[in-house]
Amino acid sequence: MKIYSILLILTVLLALPAQAQKFDGGIATYQSKTSFDMDNFGGREMSEQMKKQIAERMKSRLEKTFTLSFNKDESIYEEEAKLETPGAGGGMRFMGGGFSQGGIYKNIADDVYARQNELMGKTFLVKDTLAKLDWKLEKESKMIGQYAAFKATAVRKIEQNPWEALRRNRNAEADSTAAEAPKEMVITAWYTPQIPVSQGPDEYWGLPGLILEVSAGPTVILCNKIVINPQSGLDIEMPKKGDEVTREEYEKILAEKTKEMSERMGGGRGGFRRGRG
């Protein structure tokens, strides 16, 4: 293992000068997969056949492809567009409105996070400082494609989405022994100093090299393609449209709308249907 680690370090050191001299930016492609516990979904009332059908429908929503366009200071992480299946809608559909999220823009030089979201016919520009993690650099290393990658870990608070929070509250009221949701999760990332930018997929950043892989709870994000200094397509622009709100303000608005729709539709049963989001 020591010899393997030394070879990885030598690979990085040999590659760094060449990357640093000619690096202008790049485009990385990531596959995001989220696992879902179908065994405990729907209770005893739902048959195995029905669970299987739902799992197949959810697959396209739990397995997605994203691109990260990045340079030294800025990046934007966007879902690749794909054809909708018949009957599917974009984003999360409420009765009389919808919900969708735009790409994640990060500027690490100016400490700026921005994202354009649509909520029930209204556009919001969520603009705030970058979410920061206290990364711990580990000793483990491995190859991801042609890149030497090194492990880092961090602990992050878990923020439940509004529908999950409402569901848990109802379960807690019905069953006093219901288990509480975990408060924290361990984030594991793999980064490569061979691409000397402090960027990464989703909201992740802050390591001494491009983040190639992230494991966070049921979600794994893995880079499978990188184009350095592309001839075209390296468009990084901060979203500008919509009513500007902070993350905290937007989360409050989303929670209020979710609760409102849940109450209107009888406690959330049938109050929305999920599309691509």
From TrEMBL:
Spans annotated as Disordered: 257-277
Transcription regulation is among the record's keywords: no
Keywords: Signal
One Pfam entry name: Porph_ging
Record's keyword annotation contains DNA damage: no
Cleaved signal peptide residues: 1-20
InterPro entries reported for this sequence: GLPGLI (IPR005901)
Descriptive protein name: GLPGLI family protein
The organism of origin for this protein: Leeuwenhoekiella aestuarii
